[in-house]
Design a protein that fits this description.
Blueprint lengths: L35 H18 L4 E6 L5 E6 L6 E6 L3 E6 L4 E7 L5 E6 L5 E6 L3 E6 L12 E4 L6 E4 L5 E5 L3 E5 L7 E3 L6 E6 L6 E6 L3 E6 L7 E5 L3 E6 L6 E6 L4 E5 L8 E3 L6 E6 L5 E6 L4 E5 L5 E5 L7 E6 L5 E6 L3 E6 L11 H16 L4 H8 L5 H26 L16 E5 L1
Antiparallel strand pairs: 1-28, 2-3, 3-4, 4-5, 6-7, 7-8, 8-9, 10-11, 11-12, 12-13, 14-15, 15-16, 16-17, 17-29, 18-19, 19-20, 20-21, 22-23, 23-24, 24-25, 26-27, 27-28
Amino acid sequence: MKIKVLCRNPDEYLRETKRDIHKVPRNYDPSLHPFEAAREYTRALNATKLERVFAKPFVGSLDGHKDGVHCLSKHPTSLSLVLSGSYDGEIRIWNLPKRSCVRSISGHAGYVRGLCFHPNGNYFFSCGDDKTIKQWNMATEDGVVEEPVNTILGKTIFHSMDHHWKENMFATCGQLVDVWDESRAEPVRSFSWGVDSIGSIKFNPTETHLLGATGSDRSIMLYDMRGSAPLRKVILKLRSNTIAWNPMEAFIFTAASEDYNLYTFDMRRLDMPLNIHMDHVSAVLDVDYSPTGKEFVSGSYDKTIRIFEVEKGRSREVYHTKRMQRVMCVKWSLDNKYLLSGSDEMNIRVWKARAAEKLGVLKPREREAFQYSDKIKEKFAHHPQVKRIARHRHVPKMIYNASKELKTIKASKKRKEANRRAHSKPGSVPHVPERKKPVVSEFE
């Protein structure tokens, strides 16, 4: 004889404590929920609208410089410290959580051209228009006049500098690329490749012996510190202002160009960029990668900051304020949450990397709600309404008009080329891929 018994486990329907949420039994059979897609679509639309409502990216500003900010440097071990150098030769150390200046140093006569930390963060280097490289301690006694620990006098003006990621070595660039040992007053190695001046230099964070530099002859040059001669060189149609290496992919770097675009290259194949990132309407002056290597931030002469995803050609975000002038330098914080920008009107601004992100500690329920809304936004990202709201940005009239004009110029060039091809002998006007157009030549 069979006896049917109802079995109820209290764990399935009772709360453990009074503070918990009531447990609701759910049947996930799709046939019982015919309007699930419609409900989720409405939620995705509302989540996208709310994201735009709460998009307030500006966190605060660090003011105190008496001239325009020319360079920034992140502390390698501390999230709260940042260095800035200005046109009047002043170097400032900032405490980001307090938004206050910790120390002010009169470092150089003329521009501070470059700043870089030693990997342990105990001291830093600066170079300037006065042809000197100076080493400074991070910790000093109160009331003592700031004096550099070490001063190296160079033969020419230094335009930029960067420190090796592991060893006690740093590189400077000007008329030559010089590699220095911290304990010596003369460069260990010098590289030249027929260029008048070299504007910026960066060490590769993964393959730490590799250097990338941009020259005044529109070239991007690659060097190996262990070798005696430069490795490779690519010449573009217009000059590159600086480059940034991807921290996660050793061979990838992005160059900020004068032709309003950014070019992502694979150093193993320089004849064509992997991607062209367009949206700026004036020369791009600086670029820096996020620690994840999936995004980068760029600062431009058009007074805006843009955030690009590495795989995409258009920016996902644009930041601007009424007072912000030409953006000379940008940095992405090592916790992947904030951006720093230094501009001509003597201010350093702190921005959120994700404009609508809520700052501070999140409760578990809040975190789950944000994760759920992110997922449904991703699910319906290509729906016209959701896409339109998520993509829409208000930009200053000057940028709006300039981008419209650029669009017209590009369309006109395309039309002209198509007409020339239509009225020429077949094959005489070849189709050149868009990605091959900016590269003039490559040397090894």
